[in-house]
Design brief:
alpha+beta, 47% strand, globular, 238 residues
Length: 238
């Protein structure tokens, strides 16, 4: 009798785990489909994005040039001074204005900043092809975000980075992400999704944590698969 009872409990546990895994995969599959579908996402090689960044009462124009999985260059103009950040996944360099503690000359980017910036080389997030990337996804449950039902997923990246991602239960698009930002927990709210060449992009991002306050990014233009000269990412000589 004890053996039969054990087998019954074990079978129930196995079925529970299987159903749980299917639920996570179903949510992720619907999320990928809502974004445009896996084939469409895989066809993207470059993305050029122009944004306006609102922070501490300033409006800062910004442009990012991404070669998916390889290079990212971000440029912005602050009080008439250019700020540049470039990463290639393992190393990075930047140009900071003197007002921001820089010299106005090219300098190496600190390793922790390279790691943080390098996550942007994957433009569609850690859920897309999460198993192939070595990420783990756990369904925490359903929660309200801005009065809307959301699936709360806990994601552990292959590098050990943790994030809490919230998927709108109706649109299956990401509405919020909580993660470490410079040693403090921060949040990014995603909204105002618009379609570009069959792919959904959040045109409004609101980033916040205790250290930096609130930063709002408004997307003005997105160009997919434009020709990009890789010389753009090379560190210039001083």
């Amino acid at each position: 009798m004890k053996t039969n009872r054990f087998l019954t409990v074990a079978a129930a546990a196995f079925l529970s785990v299987s159903a749980y895994a299917q639920t996570v995969d179903e949510i992720v599959d619907k999320h990928v489909a809502a974004m445009g579908g896996l084939d469409k996402l895989k066809s993207v090689n470059t993305i050029i994005t122009e944004r306006s960044i609102a922070v501490q009462g300033m409006e800062i124009p910004s442009k990012s040039t991404l070669v998916v999985g390889k290079f990212l260059r971000s440029e912005s103009t602050i009080m008439g001074n250019a700020m540049v950040q470039v990463v290639d996944g393992k190393t990075g360099w930047m140009i900071r204005p003197t007002q921001m503690g820089g010299t106005g000359e090219p300098e190496d980017m600190p390793a922790d900043q390279v790691k943080q910036q390098a996550s942007q080389l994957d433009p569609f997030g850690s859920l897309v092809n999460y198993k192939e990337k070595g990420n783990k996804v756990e369904l925490v449950g359903k929660e309200k975000v801005d009065k809307k039902d959301n699936y709360h997923l806990k994601v552990t990246g292959s590098d050990g980075q943790l994030s809490d991602q919230f998927i709108d239960a109706e649109t299956y698009l990401i509405s919020k992400v909580k993660m470490d930002m410079g040693g403090e927990t921060g949040e990014i709210d995603f909204s105002n999704y618009k379609e570009v060449d069959g792919i959904k992009f959040a045109n409004t991002l609101e980033m916040s944590n205790a250290q930096m306050g609130l930063i709002t990014l408004l997307t003005n233009k997105v160009v997919i698969n434009a020709q990009v000269d890789e010389a753009l990412f090379k560190k210039p000589a001083k």
